[in-house]
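Entry 14. Structure prediction run on the chain below.
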Amino acid sequence: MKFLINPPKFLFFTGKGGVGKTSIACATAIRLADGGRQVLLVSTDPASNVGQVFGIAIGNRITAIPAVPGLAALEIDPQAAAQAYRDRIVGPVRGLLPETVVKGIEEQLSGACTTEIAAFDEFTALLTDSALTSAYDHIVFDTAPTGHTIRLLQLPGAWSGFLETGKGDASCLGPLAGLEKQREQYKAAVDALADETRTRLVLVARAQQATLREVARTHRELTGIGLRNQYLVINGILPHIEIANDPLAAAIHEREQTALQAIPDVLQSLPSDELMLKPFNLVGLDALRQLLVDTPTQEPITVDSPIELEQPGLSELVEQIAQDGHGLVMLMGKGGVGKTTLAAAIAVELAYRGLPVHLTTSDPAAHLTETLDGSLDNLTVSRIDPFAETETYRRHVVETKGAKLDTQGRALLEEDLRSPCTEEIAVFQAFSRIIREAGKKFVVMDTAPTGHTLLLLDATGAYHREISRQMVSGIHYLTPMMQLQDPKQTKVLIVTLAETTPVLEAVHLQDDLRRAGIEPWAWVINQSVAATKVNSQLLRQRAANEVREIEAVANRHASRYAVVPLLQREPVGAERLLEIASFKH
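Output returned:
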């Protein structure tokens, strides 16, 4: 493994949820400790299963791993860290500021940026406290901060004053309120991250074009702020031996090889490793010790009995949606779960039923729009350009809110506007112009903002409150936020995969939406191996692993749900999209 050659003191693993960061970080820590090093493994992943991996309770304290001499672990609970962080910041102003202002601050501190910054606040000491770090040869971090967070921590400024005077009411400056006293410590931490002799960043991806594009963006973002010592690990590649007598396995292998051959140019120069998909669960020391070797010695787990999964298909959800005759259908979920494809599949199926449909997406894959545009009766397609909408929104905010700011204030505002929340707000404003059509037809919307972003949009634009104040009692009016909160007007579908981390991320998204007064209508579990027939023993084991996650969605998380199988052919074009929506188990 190239990323393990002459490893520095700090190793950070970063990547999207579900790509295998935790498993690789744990395997790395074990490998280093087995080599006689003193190692501390630190996880800030909300889906952390480090304790399960080692069979002991770890939590927010350094805990020795008895089964691995030289290894200790620490699990930082990012949600608990974020709550403590919120309490520390909001406590001093509660009772001093109007309750509406306090609630606005609390909402600013409810997003993903706060969680990440709070977690970073927790492990900053591990990068800067020489008395603590001197006891370890290596500290391995599962989940690294994003470039946006690091840039925020680099900026100077009186964060509290900027927030309390209402200048930073867009997206991410709230989490930085009251951090002036930690600024020197943060500077030392950022310096440690940028020091190639001390830190190595390992970008973890899957052999999928969308995931590799996302990793390329991460690479550029981190390189742009001076974090250049990066390695690439492409995880979970299906071995060629599995394709024999299994059409689905052959199709997966071909797609992965195509993605690897088209790897973005900016990643080609990075030292890289490829890890094959293993036929066993990556839980337990024996399994993890074999993750980073080319020829595992553990016998593959054999699944003799067929996986028989009788679950509702997407067609059953579409049947219920169609009964209303019109309405807004929003698909939400993390990147890489297939929202765009499912949105198109639902739109095509509704159009085939003779119902008027407007499919609107911010997906950059223009081929999807080209395939559908004009090819079906009853279906219109629009594609919103996220870059153009975001730039327009940024210019507007800078020209209005930034007009009277000093140089420091403008720097803070402009960095705030680089947040992912900004794109969500800008794109949603463009979507809002289309939402009103849902009173007469179906509007199927791909790539929707989180509940946190919706609340920020509602608070910063004050659109909902201002309309409410201006309207005379008894006069009917409807704002986009009201429409999203009305289950008769809007159906929100949460899209996920049948894997531990994506399901947990979907649960957090559902909680986020509920805080905004939006109750998800259904969940869709996409690309399920368990919902199709496979001969490959490796894929059969993967299917068996999925069943537990599907049962959790069905029994604990969703009021209604559907399972969509992993398909042999890429679902591009109206005919193949129709297959998804009409597929019945």
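The chain has a mean pLDDT of 80.
Filed with the rest of this week's runs.
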